Amino acid sequence: MKAAVITFPGSNCDRDLAVALTRAGAEVTRVWHKDEALPAGTDLVAVPGGFSFGDYLRCGAIAAHSPVAAAIRTHAAGGGYVLGICNGFQVLTELGLLPGALMRNAGLKFICREAVLRVETVASPFTRAYAPGQEIRIPVAHHDGNYQIDPEGLAALKDQDRIAFTYALGINGSVRDIAGVLSENRRVLGMMPHPERAADAAHGGTAGAGLFQSLMQELVSA
Ligand SMILES: NC(=O)CC[C@H](N)C(=O)O
Q: How far, in Å, is the centroid of ligand 1 from the Cα of 169?
């Protein structure tokens, strides 16, 4: 699997994401947001967490206008895989690659702690290594993680089995406690929790490693 990890000014989880992907067996290239092309043969674009452009305007809104944005859209339109974690999820909604929006947390506070997630579907390239309904402990760190979507959009997510993860106990006001969603073709995933921060025993938990292993299985068997 060839993965391109994008860095924007203010990204701070890009290295951790690159390490998690590399340890899972991916060949990782780091891509600066001013690059207009992705490395040839890129399978997965990985958009990391952080505070791109200082979270000004709306989180991810300015990053979605970076020179690399067009290449990410083209990659997704061609059936390429895209993973957005935390700020990366916010960027993917701003790019229009995923529906809905990430609003300020209901409690108006930055939340930085471990959360219990429920794996809502294993029918995706990102979750196939988990068991249906499995509960996994993954860290969260955000102030704008309150996922909202209109009723029609929510119905589509449910009907099409596109809710990837929910919080076992709601933490930020997200509709239906949604923590991560898939695109219609299931090849784009955005999630607020940080699997790359739970991918090594030294992190205190390895529940996030299943996501990177799922991608490896998908892309080796593809
Ligand atoms: N860790 C992150 O990616 C933070 C995301 C975003 N800047 C927020 O606070 O909501």
A: 20
